[in-house]
Write a structure and sequence with these properties.
This protein is an alpha/beta fold. It contains 17 helices and eleven strands. The chain is globular and about 90 Å long.
């Protein structure tokens, strides 16, 4: 082969940083054989575009976010539980000690109970006559189909019977509410010979506190509203949740550790998780830099101004993310139902289980610590408020 001849403007050009830019791994994967493990496929083949972001997210979770001194908060937005991702992904993550506290939509927690109550959901199709579904007592969540009577109404009935119990009459935050609910769900799960199918049950067993940022925005809220109309008293304090969740972040930092957010989707759960830092900084004047790790899976664009698509860099301007931690932040633009199983499998394969942090049992302690420091900043006195 003859020697390549280049023009002088190319050969005379100085490129002092060329080697720096071309120092990355070569895009030269081996041909797949069908014998590779899933984590090996991700490591070796997911080399570019959103596939590379997925691989980088897997690596960020398994190598940094799951270190022993990192407290991990998980958010769940979108119809993940009807797709089975609660029992297939979230429950294993809880059992492995990879998730320390959760913020989910109320809908995800409601649909979570179907599995424990042995109410079936079915693979269907989005290409169906919805008026005909309605006339035949079938409800559709895109391509998941469920029975209006035997699934929805039955779940509502069992939930209402649980919520009539006396322990739900006292004032409480949603962590305590969901812990009580999880105890009954776990019992029913066992009675139905189901095993590890419910987030609420798994969180109860592992002392993982569970919150929802909009308690009225789900069938759980609808059932509470119905029972309230029938004379059952509820006194749920959502503002206690704001302080409890913020205390987990501060406790992680004050113990010499770090805090990470694992955001499945966006929406209200994402904001509720991330507002913990502004609560510390703005409300209680506690000096803090922001989250140490940030991993989000979303299909939301940043240019519409919505929070779901807001980037980690934008979060820095709010104090939500430590600017020095930006190299440890990542957004994977993809469907959560695709990414979450891959992310879960990778983490379980690449990292050994962690000791359960059991934050639910420690929430009074962490809350008192935060309130004492925050109230002292504001008034010069220790907190008189009850945790």
């Amino acid at each position: 082969m003859s020697e390549m001849k280049l023009p002088k403007w190319v050969t005379n050009k100085k490129c002092p940083r060329k080697n720096k830019y071309l120092a990355g791994k070569k895009v030269a994967p081996n041909g797949l054989t069908g014998k590779e493990s899933l984590p090996d496929v991700i490591d070796q083949v997911f080399l570019a575009y959103n596939g590379a972001r997925l691989r980088e997210g897997c690596e960020l979770l398994a190598t940094k976010m799951l270190q022993p001194d990192v407290t991990v908060g998980l958010t769940l937005a979108g119809a993940l539980n009807p797709a089975g991702l609660g029992r297939s992904c979230v429950v294993p993550l809880i059992k492995a000690g990879f998730v320390d506290w959760i913020v989910a939509t109320g809908a995800n927690l409601y649909h979570d109970m179907h599995f424990a109550f042995d109410c079936s959901l079915h693979v269907g199709t989005p290409h169906v006559n919805d008026a005909d579904l309605r006339s035949n007592g079938v409800v559709r969540i895109y391509d998941v189909l469920l029975d209006f009577t035997d699934c929805l109404m039955r779940t509502d009935h069992i939930l209402a019977e649980i919520l009539k119990k006396p322990e739900f009459r006292k004032k409480m935050g949603l962590a305590e509410f969901h812990n009580h609910l999880g105890r009954y769900v776990a019992k029913i799960e066992e009675e139905n010979n189901q095993k590890d199918v419910s987030i609420l049950a798994a969180a109860y067993r592992a002392d993982v506190p569970v919150y929802t940022s909009s308690p009225g925005d789900s069938t759980i809220g609808m059932v509470i509203a119905k029972l309230s109309a029938l004379g059952y008293e509820f006194n749920i304090d959502p503002f206690l949740d704001v302080n409890e969740t913020s205390s987990y972040v501060l406790a992680a930092k004050r113990s010499g550790g770090k805090h990470a957010v694992l955001l499945m989707g966006g929406g209200s759960p994402k904001n509720f998780m991330l507002q913990t830092e502004p609560q510390l900084q703005e409300s209680f004047h506690i000096e803090e830099a922001g989250q140490d790790y940030f991993l989000q899976v979303t299909d939301a664009r940043p240019d519409t101004g919505g929070l779901s698509g807001a980037t980690p860099s934008e979060a820095v301007s709010w104090g939500k993310v430590d600017p020095l931690a930006l190299p440890n932040t990542l957004v994977c633009y993809a469907d959560t139902t695709i990414v979450m199983p891959l992310l879960t499998h990778y983490a379980l394969a690449r990292h050994k289980p962690r000791k359960l942090r059991r934050l639910y049992a420690k929430r009074h302690e962490t809350l008192k610590m935060m309130l004492d420091e925050g109230v002292a900043n504001l008034t010069g006195k220790k907190s008189k408020g009850k945790p």
